[in-house]
Amino acid sequence: MKQFLGILFFTIVAFTGLQSCSSKGNAPVMPPTSVNLYTVQERPAVYYDEYPANVVALSQVDLRPQVEGYITSIFFKEGDHVSKGQKLYEIDRSKYLAAYDQAVANVKVAEANKDQAQKDADRYTYLNEHDAVAKQTLDHALTTLQNAKSQITAAKQDQVRTQTDLKYSLITAPFDGTIGLSQVKIGTLAVAGQTLLNTISTDNPMAVDFVINEKQLSRFLQLQKVKTDSLFTLLMPDNTLYPHTGAISVIDRGVDPVTGTIKIRLQFSNTDFELRAGMSCKVRVRNTDAGNQIIIPNKAIVEQMGEYFVFVKKDSADKTIATQRKVTPGQQIGANIIIKNGLVPGEQIIIDGVQKVRNGASINPGKPGGQQKSGH
């Protein structure tokens, strides 16, 4: 009996040990990861590259007097649009007007002297032809005539100089533009070539400058040839869209060797004078890649060591798995991103639960999406 009980106990212990070993040898099966899918599709993609920019005047001039004197009149309102040739400042003209009148009178005197010298020279030349006058007298008459002619030339040059000074005593606008705050008042002594009176700058059209990386130069050289409207638009400082579109005016002559950038200048109409020199804004450059493109939610992208992947749904005989696939991303548009290579329309990719999924893992798909809107 004791022998029978010993055998039975051994059998039970052995059976229990085998059960325990069998249980430890089989790992628990993980349930499929719940995910949401997105159906890949092509849609029109309109997006813009944005660059910080500054508004500059195409021409700007500091107004300084070319003659000295006290400011006697100011003819404009500060900050106004002025026209070419419009009177701006007047410097005391009395002495310049007097000098000009004196120069005019000197010309008349010189011309009268020349006329008298001409008559004397003609008379003595005639008498000399009949041996009725000394040769020396004729020589003196001819010399006097030549001096009289030189005096006329000098008097006329002085007249031009005084006329120029008189003209410069009245300062006018060199071109159409906006004039700034006056730096002088009536009664201020203006020193020729030194005193800053004001600054005037062109206001229509206006230039907008921004810089690009040298790697983008070839793209902008092509854009310079494109005549399509709305390639270049402008966001004002308050982020409102400027109503006029621009065009490339100038691409700078060289690349900055320190920063590797090059300056681009656009030109915009400014009929309402909304753009002011020195204003900060943003240039928007519309992408010229026409047609439909594959656009997916940006959250579907997984980055690994500088490469980009998505998880594509794949059905097998008994389960649904996630397959990792390398893609080439393009421009980001809001919450979405363009995919240049790696996906085709109709495929389904994981957009929710991406961080929990591994390549080849089983998934439990939710309802496929695919109606995401592309941003601008």
Features:
single chain, 376 residues, alpha+beta, conserved putative lor/sdh protein from methanococcus maripaludis s2 fold, Elongation Factor Tu (Ef-tu), domain 3, Helix Hairpins, 3 domains, six-stranded antiparallel beta sheet, 4 helices, 23 strands, rod-shaped, disordered C terminus
Structure description:
The chain has 376 residues and is of the alpha+beta class. It folds into three domains: 89 residues, Beta Barrel (conserved putative lor/sdh protein from methanococcus maripaludis s2 fold); 151 residues, Efflux pump adaptor protein, beta barrel domain (Elongation Factor Tu (Ef-tu), domain 3, Beta Barrel); 75 residues, Helix hairpin bin (Helix Hairpins). The chain contains four helices and 23 strands. A six-stranded antiparallel β-sheet has the order 2-17-21-20-19-18, with no helix packed on it. The longest helix is centred in the N-terminal third of the chain and has 36 residues. It is rod-shaped, with a radius of gyration of 45 Å.
Topology at a glance:
Layout: H1 2-25, E1 33-39, E2 42-44, E3 48-56, E4 60-63, E5 69-74, E6 81-82, E7 87-91, H2 94-129, H3 135-168, E8 170-172, E9 177-179, E10 189-190, E11 198-201, E12 206-213, H4 217-223, E13 232-235, E14 246-251, E15 261-268, E16 280-286, E17 292-297, E18 302-304, E19 307-315, E20 320-333, E21 336-341, E22 348-352, E23 363-365
Parallel strand pairs: 1-23
Antiparallel strand pairs: 1-22, 2-17, 3-12, 3-16, 4-11, 5-7, 5-10, 6-9, 7-8, 9-11, 12-15, 13-16, 14-15, 17-21, 18-19, 19-20, 20-21
Helix pairs in contact: 2-3
